[in-house]
Amino acid sequence: MKIAKFGGSSLATWEQIEKVFQIVVSDKERKIIVVSAPGKRYPDDIKITDLLITCGRKSINGEDYSIEYSQIIERYSEIANGLCLSSDIIDEISLNIEGALSSSKENHAKYMDAVMACGEDNCARLVANYFQMKEIDAEYINPKDGGLFVTNEPGHAQVLPKSYLLLHELRNKKGIVIFPGFFGYSEDGDIVTFSRSGSDITGSVIANGVKASLYENFTDVDAVYSVNPSIIQEPKEIKELTYREMRELSYAGFNVFHDEALIPAFQAGIPVNIKNTNNPTAPGTVIVKERKLTNGPLVGVASDNGFCSIYISKYLMNREVGFGRKILQILEDFHISYEHQPSGIDDISIVIRQNQLTSTIENQIINRIQDELHVDHVVIERDLALIMLVGEGMRHNVGTTARASKALANASINIEMINQGSSEVSMMFGVKASDEKKAVQVIYEEFFPKVSSK
Ligand SMILES: Nc1ncnc2c1ncn2[C@@H]1O[C@H](COP(=O)(O)OP(=O)(O)O)[C@@H](O)[C@H]1O
Ligand SMILES: N[C@@H](CC(=O)OP(=O)(O)O)C(=O)O
């Protein structure tokens, strides 16, 4: 049994949904289909999820959201008309979205999750309706009925262990199951969403629950590329990746697959195949437990920006028991999570996402570090990008850091910090955000030189 998840790009228009239908019926093993909400039809388009977010926010503020609401209904209607579905499905979808928008706004985060989830929920209803019209035995299953229970953390749900056993029952469904991605239910019966792009997580959790033979993740690219295709034209396709490599790359900026979506599949030993809805015969990228290390040290180069670093120096920091804990305690008091913490004998940098740091919080943190830890120096450097070099091959290759640093030096890019991940499959370079693209380009060129065609 295979699980096939289709992303927003695969459901953006009725023509895309027709492709989804053809892909599903071409393989009898494709029994459980997870769908996202209709995504962008062209680069400047707005995803249904984003329209729903605007509606929800406006509704909370008591503002008029009729324009965005109409746009949402128009998008679903266009799809339904293109697929020749009866108008009943649009009535059902309108009622469902109106219901969510007029539900209690007492808890804003809970309200927003219920509104956002409408994108996937109604897409699943629509897709199931189309399959039925084509006389395919298919049914829409709501996550509550399917058994997808999650923690009560709006926008950041985690799967509750009991879900896996409950979801196992989906194996016994006779026909094709159409399951909405992106959200589950708390034990109190509320809708709670995963973080953005979380339909990938739904697919992986169900794959684990039903012990699928394969988790197929359909998107709009032929493969996971060695670098973000918006930075390098025609980058090298990756045929095979390990779970660890993919997790590091997704976490560091490869948004083609959600970084939290690897673990459920990995725990059940289920391979993940990233494939293209627009070119389904292409083999795509397979994510597995182990792979032969046939290429060089790196499998990919990822990057992300919006980071800042809290640099702290204090003579003999290395001898002060509990110093690191005290710094992290200060951050915890402000509910700030950190990403990396490269350190030396007398200094340490804590890298955090910049959006967690308002100027008021920044001043309070600096004051507390100075007052409580008596440091020599503390400074916050903003607007950093992190460049992540990833590859299982790094463990067996000497000189990877030197090659990367030399490539950056030759391009006159200053390295703000370096951190070798303790997993030994990743290495991080911090640079100024303004140097991000250039840094990725030169590192990519160093490790993935173009093969001359003669
Ligand atoms: N290294 C990469 N390899 C492939 N795609 C990437 C990579 N980095 C970023 N992307 C982007 O991820 C996109 C697919 O992810 P996403 O937009 O979430 O798709 P979906 O709508 O199918 O969920 C691609 O169109 C591509 O622009
Ligand atoms: N629709 C949700 C969840 C999702 O997974 O979407 P996509 O498959 O388009 O990344 C979002 O936009 O975040």
TrEMBL record:
Keywords on record: Amino-acid biosynthesis, ATP-binding, Diaminopimelate biosynthesis, Kinase, Lysine biosynthesis, Nucleotide-binding, Transferase
EC class of the enzyme, as a word: transferase
Listed Pfam families: AA_kinase (PF00696), ACT_9 (PF22468)
Keyword Amino-acid biosynthesis: yes
Residues annotated as binding ATP: 5-8, 219-220, 225
InterPro entries found in the cross-reference section: AceGlu_kinase-like_sf, ACT-like_dom_sf, ACT_Aspartokinase, ACT_dom, AKIII_YclM_N, Asp/Glu/Uridylate_kinase, Asp_kin_monofn, Asp_kinase
Name of the featured protein: Aspartokinase
Species annotation: Gottfriedia solisilvae
Enzyme nomenclature, EC number: 2.7.2.4
Gene: yclM
Annotated ACT domain residues: 389-454
Pathway, per record: Amino-acid biosynthesis; L-threonine biosynthesis; L-threonine from L-aspartate: step 1/5; Amino-acid biosynthesis; L-lysine biosynthesis via DAP pathway; (S)-tetrahydrodipicolinate from L-aspartate: step 1/4; Amino-acid biosynthesis; L-methionine biosynthesis via de novo pathway; L-homoserine from L-aspartate: step 1/3
Family the UniProt entry places it in: Belongs to the aspartokinase family.
GO BP annotations listed: diaminopimelate biosynthetic process; homoserine biosynthetic process; lysine biosynthetic process via diaminopimelate; threonine biosynthetic process
One annotated Gene Ontology cellular component of this protein: cytosol
